[in-house]
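Curious: why these numbers?
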Amino acid sequence: MLVEELMKEEYNAGKEDGKAEGIVSSIVDFLSDLSPVSDDLESRIASVNDFEILKNLNKKAARATSIEEFEQYLTVQKY
C-alpha cells in the first residue's frame, strides 16, 4: 500500500506542476498581448509556487493595461 500511496502523491504533484505551468503560460500570454515579456519577468512569475497566488496573478494579467502595472503589482505583493 505504501508504494501505491507514494505513486499517487507523485502523480498528484506532477499534475499540480502541470497546472501551474499552464497558468504561468497563460499569464505570459496575457502580458504578451500588451508588450514583450522579459525573461526576468517570466522567471519571477514562474518562481511563484503557490497555486492560488498564480490563479490571482492570472486574473491580474488578464485585466492589466500595461506590463508596468503588472510588475508594480508583483513588487507590492512581494512576488
In short: The chain has four helices and no strands. The mean pLDDT is 86.
